[in-house]
Design goal:
alpha+beta; homodimer; 11 strands; DNA-binding
DNA sequence: CGGTTATTTGAAATACGTCAATTCAAGTGG
DNA sequence: CCACTTGAATTGACGTATTTCAAATAACCG
């Protein structure tokens, strides 16, 4: 459903594959974890061991996510999202899950809230249970640190998302969102955010995440394109003017704790 | 600043105080935890032991919240909120912290995100570290279960908030918000949500939480009042028509996991 | 009582949503 | 290779929700 025009982009092999790893499915995951900490050979083994739980899902699948029964997972290929559905059909996408990212680490779900995890493209997952269950080790390895950081990132992103939805205009929202996606896509050749990166999401999906109608999202996109800030075509996003885009995204201001306010 | 007209309401003594507890400050906290699980005498002792860390904050204080340095806390009196501030002064309130509720359990903060915890009224806190640090006990007590549930609640509320901000109209948002606050205020005399409960928040603060301008929030409030759904005056909220209010709040729809979507 | 802060209201501007139609890209079967 | 289908992207016209600016009350506090 959501993967006609855009099916090829995200499958394109990256250039900076972790060397020496035969298992192709593990590469996006290892790349992402490796960005957060240095992984030991043993860490890599622990990740590769997850392969036995690998599972495929067609696009549109609703993944079963009772936190207690199913536990944490990683997406190793394709994109998914957390979402909540309302009676009248409206839905809010809470966050996206890109290849190499995880879901089910937090106590979301609970059937009655309308929450669900949905496959936005063809999907492959592995269970992360065997990593998370081990809990804080006596001597935390790089992998443990990476998992902790993943957790922090998810939390920070959720805050970002609330700020977007509550305070930013449509124009600002899209700019802010694209910058987040660029950061998530990983560093480019120059070390900074990649100028161009895969974004295999339909406008409808992105609009549902940003709390905008598809029509309005499209119009905002046109504005941003006309202003030369970015380009989205064929499942790829291209940041054309990073500085202007960051300015449009109205980033938060740092704040020192002060005893006794104004 | 935010506590002129509304300073008296939240201080009013509740009727259903936990009996046999001399320490007045601990009552709201014990009441809330007691709603989630049955506390043993030992559990109550563990909570009372937190009293040594009790601390007061004037309204408007920015509380220091570097997750690692300061750790989790409970608010034992007054109201606070988590918020993010933007460069141009806009702020998004991420969630409220009522008497007996906690903050700092999650890895929020990180100075550069603009996140902060703010005292909305005069505030009293205790450090929860000694409870949380003990980690999962061999035989988890009622208190441990309660802490787990607190965690779940916070997560679920954050989802609710995103749905409000992203999908609901102003009218729906306010209705949805009031119902959440009613639930948080605890059961009334009849066991259901209390018809009337303390809500010592200014319209400006609530508007900042709901992503609405104060002016519009006020107008929506007028509509809801005119429709006979609710009343807010002098730091108290009164739900006049629970059924109609729930209908206006467009609650989420339950969803069974389905392998292979439509 | 005077000063301050919250609430309330009006009028005008604008951002955003809805409805409806068209274009475009990609696949499918002949 | 070309009609034909389908889902996504795009655009126009119009209505409505929400914001902004400005001002007037109303509640609280010392």
């Amino acid at each position: 459903m959501a993967d006609r025009r855009i099916a090829s982009a995200w499958q394109a092999p990256g250039r900076d594959e972790p060397a020496g790893v035969r298992e192709a499915w593990a590469r996006p995951l290892l790349r992402r974890l490796g960005r957060l900490a240095t992984l030991t050979a043993e860490d890599i083994e622990r990740v590769l061991a997850l392969g036995v739980t690998r599972r495929r899902w067609p696009p549109g699948s609703l993944l079963p996510v009772d936190a207690r029964a199913w536990g944490p997972h990683f997406v190793v290929a394709g994109w998914a999202c957390n979402q909540r559905t309302l009676r009248d059909g409206r839905r809010q996408i809470l966050d996206f899950i890109a290849p190499g990212e995880g879901f089910g680490f937090d106590p979301l779900s609970e059937r009655h809230t309308g929450h669900s995890v949905v496959a936005l493209t063809a999907l492959e997952t592995v269970a992360a249970g065997s990593l998370a269950d081990e809990g804080p080790t006596a001597s935390p390895s790089g992998l443990d640190h990476a998992l902790q950081d993943v957790w922090f990132e998810i939390e920070a992103r959720r805050q970002d998302h609330m700020v977007r939805l509550g305070q930013l205009t449509g124009y600002e929202r899209v700019a802010h969102f694209i910058l987040e996606m660029q950061r998530r896509a990983g560093p480019g050749a120059d070390g900074g955010g990649a100028r161009s990166f895969p974004l295999p999401l339909t406008q409808e999906v992105m609009a549902d995440a940003l709390g905008l109608s598809v029509v309005h999202f499209n119009r905002v996109l046109r504005q941003l394109r006309a202003a030369g800030l970015l380009e989205i075509r064929g499942g790829m996003a291209e940041v054309r003017d990073p500085a202007a885009l960051a300015k449009a995204a109205v980033l938060p201001v740092p704040q020192d704790p002060v005893i006794g306010g104004p």
